[in-house]
Design brief:
The complex is a heterodimer of chains A (338) and B (150). By secondary structure, chain A is α/β, with parallel strands linked by helices. Chain A has one domain: Alpha-Beta Barrel (TIM Barrel), CATH 3.20.20. Chain A is built from 13 helices and 8 strands. Chain A has an 8-stranded parallel barrel with strand order 1-2-3-4-5-6-7-8, surrounded by 7 helices. The longest helix of chain A has 18 residues. The radius of gyration of chain A is 19 Å and the shape is globular. Chain B is mainly α and 150 residues long. Chain B has one domain. In chain B, helix 1 packs parallel to helix 4 and helix 2 crosses helix 5. Chain B starts with a helix and ends with a helix. Classes of the chains: A alpha/beta (338), B mainly alpha (150). Chains A and B meet through helix 6 and helix 7 of A and helix 4 of B.
């Protein structure tokens, strides 16, 4: 176990959960992530894999790898239907020292009663962002014997968040004394069938209250271009901030395994060919990721990029730096500030 | 029945016409019936609905029927029971992430919907199922709602 002393945290932030900033006009939350997007900056987000541990310092160490490279950190909620530390707890820990975490809520494990309670609890602990997900099926994980819940779907969940925040009531209509001021988002996968419906599906999510959208891994630029240009034509990029997802592949074999075993991951043959032809496949995978980030930034209607580097988290900051997508901007981080 | 369900999405336009023509008739007769017998025939009506819609659409009797808005494809056949569109895990061949041998319900729904006259309905937000209605007849509920509205 790592001692708390080894993590230098500005004491000023420790007693201000989430370091909530002052409420600005036209902002729903008091969080930094919403501010960065609404200022028109190109935002970078990433994903933190919650540990298989009851040790909070593991969370802090993982988050520290992203310092000054990202604007917000997604805490996954039992990703791949495997159990890890809860996303509510990870977000609370991160918010407590001033980070800007995004609470992922999967509809797989909890019914509407539990989910509404989590939203209130997370908001009370200073979490300012929430991401509504359907969630991988239980059969994808290491406890396939579990019961699947799916009481809500991602769109019903967005409706629920919006109602709680804007009407200050629970689904039942019961009044809340304080509404959860959360910036709400959801996901879209533009790369799998029915491909033609995906822009409409995103529109439905925006109608239901999604203010930002993070996409599944993009390794197919032409497909993303088609998706984005239709989104621009339909005015959706004016209504929500879109952050395409990019990722890094450790090797050609990993890429092959991912596309045949992980639902919804589309990797074109050209990428696999490029990886297998490289001398250092891991480095090549990172180079591809950097190039994708740069290409994403050039697309019309894009507000940022979401970097997913499962088990390669330590390279995220370097890849973001190499890509130059942040320009001169240095995202806030809770340490090295004093 | 899986085959009948695929047939329904393939011929969604015809099914839509049939649905639009038959549902007022079914509801009107149920309304009259419910005035006369006041709930005594609920059981056989529920049975009839279960059998008819079960055969045609693999109906799961959720009691919150949205067939006309989902390309004549029952969304309760989705292993995640999604009511508002596909998840992100659909396979490249259009089959289900959870049941690889089954066509994704929402791929069917989308295809069905594009054939329908009121194809914009698939964009309507459907809030989660009211689980209190599970196993009950959507026909009777709709007929009763009509009675109350009048």
């Amino acid at each position: 176990m790592v001692s708390d002393e080894s993590i230098k945290i500005n004491p000023e932030y420790v007693y201000h959960p989430g370091n909530p900033l002052s409420q600005l006009d036209n902002h729903v939350s008091r969080g930094r992530f919403e501010r960065v997007l609404k200022r028109g900056e190109f935002a970078v987000t990433t994903e933190l894999a919650p540990p298989d541990s009851a040790d909070r310092t593991e969370v802090f160490h993982e988050a520290a790898m992203f310092d000054h490279a990202v604007d917000a950190i997604n805490a996954t909620d039992g990703s791949g239907a495997n159990c890890h530390m809860s996303s509510v707890a990870v977000c609370a820990l991160l918010a407590h020292i001033g980070y800007s975490p995004i609470l992922q809520i999967s509809c797989r494990d909890k019914n509407r009663i539990a989910i509404q309670g989590d939203i209130l609890g997370a908001a009370a602990m200073g979490v300012c962002n929430v991401l509504a997900l359907t969630g991988d099926d239980v059969s994808a994980g290491d406890q396939p014997e579990a019961k699947r819940v799916f009481d809500l779907d991602s769109i019903s969940l967005l409706t629920t968040i919006q109602k709680m925040r804007d009407e200050s009531t629970l689904l039942s209509g019961r009044k809340l004394t304080e509404a959860p001021a959360m910036f709400a988002g959801s996901t879209i996968n533009p790369f799998v069938p029915p491909v033609k419906s995906r822009v409409s599906q995103m529109e439905k999510k925006i109608d239901a209250g999604a203010q930002f959208i993070q996409t599944q891994y993009c390794f197919d630029m032409p497909m993303l271009k088609d998706f984005m240009s239709e989104a621009v034509d339909r005015g959706l990029t004016e209504r929500a901030f879109i952050l395409p997802g990019v990722g890094t592949l450790a090797s050609a074999n990993t890429a092959k395994w991912l596309r045949s075993n992980v639902p919804g991951v589309h990797i074109p043959d050209s990428i696999i060919k490029r990886l297998s032809g490289a001398e250092n496949q891991k480095k090549e995978g990172q180079k591809i990721c950097v190039e994708l980030m740069q290409q994403v930034k050039e697309l019309e209607g894009v507000s940022g990029v979401h970097v997913m580097a499962y088990k390669q988290e330590q390279f995220v900051a370097e890849m973001v730096k190499d890509s130059g997508v942040l320009g001169d901007r240095k995202p806030w981080a809770p340490r090295n500030e004093y | 029945m899986y085959k009948a369900r695929l047939f329904a999405s393939k011929h969604a336009r015809a099914y839509e016409a049939m649905y639009n023509a038959s549902s007022p008739v079914i509801l009107a007769s149920l309304r009259v019936l419910s005035k006369i017998v006041k709930g005594k025939l609920d059981k056989p009506i529920t049975w009839a609905e279960k059998k008819t819609k079960g055969f045609l659409f693999d109906c799961q009797m959720c009691g919150n029927c949205v067939l006309s808005t989902t390309g004549m494809t029952c969304p309760m056949n989705c292993p995640k029971t999604l009511r508002n569109g596909p998840c992100g895990g659909v396979r490249a061949n259009g089959n289900c992430e959870v049941k690889p041998e089954m066509k994704c319900v929402w791929v069917e729904a989308w295809n069905g919907s594009t054939k329908m006259k009121h194809n914009h309905k698939i964009q309507e937000i459907q809030f989660a199922v009211n689980n209190e209605h599970k196993g009950s007849s959507a026909w009777i509920r709709l007929a009763n709602e009509d009675v109350k509205a009048k």
